[in-house]
């Protein structure tokens, strides 16, 4: 009987020792009394089972839209300076209005094409490592358009309100002479500007990437 009791006592003591050692291991893992939590700890010095040789890549960084923002601000500023130049040269007077409008249209179209080409090419080289799909180029041009329209509208308001208030009056007179019904004012002028800028900007966003797209080298 005493031998049996001794055998049981030795077994309990051994079990208690193993439990204590296991508790020490879990305590070192920082998991307290929950033994399964150790399996959730980050692996240090070894890879999880079944993941050997797998290359873990970081997701690509989000684009900053730096090129679109830069050119979307530069384009209205250049156009603003040109508007002032046209005024100084007398191209916004009643006598030279028709000539001034053709000059404004021609120079403005060349400026738009140049800016969209430079902007989309910069996006290709700096943001996409020299490669560009048509879709990427289109969205770059569309973003430039969205930035350019409100900035140019604000600068046009400054020009017609403070620099050359007569410009809007002459424009309204020419609109009526051309058959416009009503009294055109700033609201009408703004509407024409926004619609025409959006249409031309989106057309350039569709066309320019066709010539600038480039497949990756690899």
Walkthrough of the structure:
- By secondary structure, this protein is mainly alpha-helical.
- The chain is built from six helices and no strands.
- The longest helix has 31 residues, at 97-127.
- The protein folds into two domains: 2-40; 68-212, no CATH class.
- The chain is 69% helix and 0% strand.
- It is elongated.
- Helix 4 packs across helix 5 and helix 4 runs antiparallel to helix 6.
Fold topology:
Layout: H1 2-28, H2 66-88, H3 97-127, H4 134-163, H5 165-177, H6 186-212
Helix pairs in contact: 2-3, 2-4, 3-4, 3-6, 4-5, 4-6
How would you sum up this structure in a few lines?
This protein is mostly helical.
Give a quick set of tags describing it.
218 residues, mainly alpha, 69% helix, disordered N terminus
H and E string? HHHHHH
- Provide the structure class: mainly alpha
Which range best describes the helical content: under 10%, 10-25%, 25-40%, 40-55%, 55-70% or over 70%? 55-70%
Largest beta-sheet characterization: none
Number of domains: 2
Number of helices: 6
Distance between the termini: 82 Å
Radius of gyration, in angstroms, nearest whole number: 36 Å
Mean pLDDT: 82
Low-pLDDT ranges: 1-5, 25-47, 51-60
């Amino acid at each position: 009987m005493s031998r049996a009791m001794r055998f049981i006592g030795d077994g309990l003591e051994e079990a208690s020792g193993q439990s204590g050692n296991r508790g020490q291991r879990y305590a070192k893992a920082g998991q307290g009394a929950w033994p399964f939590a150790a399996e959730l700890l980050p692996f240090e010095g070894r890879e999880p089972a079944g993941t050997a040789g797998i290359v873990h890549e970081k997701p690509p960084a989000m684009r900053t839209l730096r090129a679109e923002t830069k050119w979307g601000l530069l384009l209205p500023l250049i156009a603003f300076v040109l508007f002032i130049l046209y005024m100084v040269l007398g191209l916004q007077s009643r006598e030279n209005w028709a000539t001034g409008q053709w000059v404004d249209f021609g120079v403005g179209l060349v400026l738009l094409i140049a800016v969209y080409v430079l902007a989309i090419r910069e996006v290709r080289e700096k943001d996409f490592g020299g490669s560009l799909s048509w879709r990427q180029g289109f969205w770059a041009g569309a973003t430039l358009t969205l930035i350019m329209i409100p900035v140019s509208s604000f600068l046009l308001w400054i020009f017609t309100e403070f620099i050359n208030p007569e410009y809007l009056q002459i424009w309204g007179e020419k609109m009526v002479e051309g058959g416009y019904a009503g009294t055109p004012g700033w609201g009408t002028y703004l509407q024409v500007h926004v619609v025409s800028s959006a249409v031309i900007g989106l057309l350039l966003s569709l066309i320019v990437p066709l010539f600038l797209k480039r497949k990756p080298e690899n």
